Every structure is written in C-alpha cells, then in structure tokens.
Amino acid sequence: MTKFTDHLGRPVVAVTGIGVVTSLGVGKKDNWEALTAGRSGIHPITRFPVDQLNTRIAGTVDFLASSSKGASALTYELAETAAGEAITEAGFTIDDFGGPLFLASPPVELDWHDRLALYKGGDREPASDRLLEVARNLNSLEMFDSAQFASIADRLADRFGATGLPITLSTACASGATAIQLGVEAIRRGEAQRALSIGADGSATAEALIRFSLLSALSTSNDAPEKASKPFSKDRDGFVLAEGSAALVLESLESATARGATVLGIIQGCGEKADDFHRTRSKPDGSPAIAAVRAALADAGLGEDGIDYINAHGTSTPENDKMEHMSLSTVFGEHINRIPISSNKSMIGHTLSAAGAIEAAFSLMTMREGVIPPTINYDNPDPAIALDVVPNVKREASVRTVLSNSFGFGGQNTCLVMAREPV
What we know:
Layout lengths: L12 E10 L2 E2 L1 H9 L6 E2 L12 E2 L12 H20 L10 E4 L7 H9 L6 H9 L5 H6 L4 H10 L6 E3 L5 H14 L5 E8 L4 H9 L29 E9 H6 L6 E10 L12 H14 L8 E3 L6 H15 L8 E2 L2 H4 L6 H15 L1 E2 L22 E2 L4 E8 L3 E8 L4
Parallel strand pairs: 5-6, 5-7, 10-11, 10-14
Antiparallel strand pairs: 1-2, 1-8, 1-9, 3-4, 7-8, 9-15, 12-13, 14-15
C-alpha cells in the first residue's frame, strides 16, 4: 500500500469532476443550495394529462429544451448537461475526454406520439403489419435509432470524445451506482487512467407513471407535492417518480496528482449483490442488501465503525425503508445509533436509473462542504425505524467517509463507500 494504491494494491480512484441536474436545478451550485435548504423539487405534473390518474405529481425536469420531446431526447440532454459540467470541472477538453464512458439509463421506448405517428403512416391492417410497413421505410430510421438502448451512449461518446466502446447499462434503481462501479473497476484493472460515469433518466412519462401505480409503489399525496416524499416516516405511502442526472469524472489518484487536479473525493469501495427473490419486492430477510453493504466495506478496507454518514436509498415506500433499516442495523450493530442517515429522495424524488449517481455526487459534496442534507417531511417518526435521519434541517458535520446505498427492483443492490481523502 502506497499513497497511490489501496489496501489491496489497486490504484486509488479519485473524483476530479462532478455534474448534477435534478428538479431542483441545473448544476452543483443550485442543487446544493436547494438541497441543504431543505427545498423540494416535487410538483404537479403538467407535461401530460393526469386527470384520471391516482398519482399526479413528480419531480420532472421541465426547464430543459428537450423536456417535451420524449424520454430519449430528455435523457440525452440530462446526461450531456451533467457530463459537460463534470468534464469542465476536471479540466479536460469538452470534446476530447480520452477515457471510457459508462452510462446508466432507462430502457428507452418509443414515445406514444411516435408510435401513433408510425401507425398513421401506413394503411395496412392489422396494426402490427402497418407498423412493420412504416418501419421498413428509410425515412423512419431516425425514430427507431432514438429508441435503441445504446444510442444515447453512442451520441455521448461522440460528443465528448470518449474512447473505446461506450457501455450502457440498466440495473434498475442501482444503475447509477453500477456505472460508477464499472468506471472504478476499469481504472483499478489498469485499463484506463480516467473514466466518465453517468446516470441519467428522463423517463417520467405517463406510461411509467401508470406502471408504477399498478405496482402500488407511488405516493398519492397529490394535494401537497412537496410533502409527498417522506422517507422513514410512519405515514410514508410510496416514492415520487422523478428525473435527473449526475456525472463523475473518475481518475487514478496518481494521474490526478501528476496533472495538479483538484481531488473532490475518493471512491474507496464498491459492493454489489443480486438475488432472484422477486421482480420488484425486496427479500424479506434483507440478506442481499446486507451482503452488498458488507462487500462495499470490505472492498474499502473498513470495518463497521468506519462510516461517518450514510446516504440512504430511502425511497419512502413502506417495504424498502423497513428493509433498509433492518439491513443497516444488522451490519452496523450498535454503531448505527451514532451514524447520521438521510435521504436525498425526500427532496428530489426517485430518479430511478440516475439515483445512484446523483446520490454519490451529493455524498461527495457532503464531505467536501461539511454539511449533511436533511431528510425533509419527517414529521411522523416511525417507532419501528429508530435512526438518526437528520430530520428536516441540515447539519454541519465533519464527514470523512460515506456509504451510499442503491437497492433496485429485481434484486439489484449496489453500495459505494466514498472518502474525503484516501483512508
């Protein structure tokens, strides 16, 4: 172990650039000011009709140019905006980054207006034959390209001058953290000196809202949108669908030091665990989440007393919050009573594929700024979840290490351990 290698002899991975977009605004500055002030970005949906829906609120990003152009276009703009901020902060050329790109994004589908346009473009019956007729028309290829899973990463790689084949991944709500893990592993293996990891999701569509509603996963607290996301509260009733993005420039500490870059934090450890218990539900005994947390701590070379703050997955669903509490209590034992644990989702909602990346970015800023963002809307504590959730008001604190949890549908669990400086 040296200054530039960790306890397992691998290159230490530093973060030298961060970019963020959420419903709270564009860029680190606006997001951090809103987050630490306890402001909510949740609001009534105006993008599409919601009169007949049980849930009529979301954390949509309505202030970007492509917000009305469909999920694929918005996801691209979210990713491009966050990545541009991160690359610029890191001091690299915006169109010649020179490292691999890892993108976490939703499984993009054709938007309904595109599907209807295709349907109207032919005259065959039945409808499936009509769609195939139009699909074979060369003039419609651009529309289909926009819905191909890897097309967004391909465009981003061209935009920023990334090297190699860009990787697109979708591991449900853990996707953003998984993109960071892949970047870390590429540097640790010596395949790259730097990498660009992005989580972006602009898929708060009517169809997505209906699907999650059918799973009884969404909050229906429509009358007070800013109060709807209430992680760890007794009266929590579901998560709030949201959009956003975050990008991290990852770099070997040796490379960052050699070029005089400002180190914003260290990705100390990554842990993952998948299970096949259920397509949406968490395993009742919490064993996959427990294993993911323990794997992240082991990878970081830390014990149960080595974490100063936990950025919770904290979705505000009855089952997830209970499972996360049980998992953390199992791993940390009596230490859990001294660790502050808060959920950014209380303010920005659940950004799905982007959540792990956004929360990693906020975790790094927490250490750098010495301020823990609160869990807002904590007005009705759940006695079954005895945690210090930093209720309602930010807290100044010296934070050296953070555990950031991402627990996704389908048993996808990824945890990141970050440090202010090499541990």
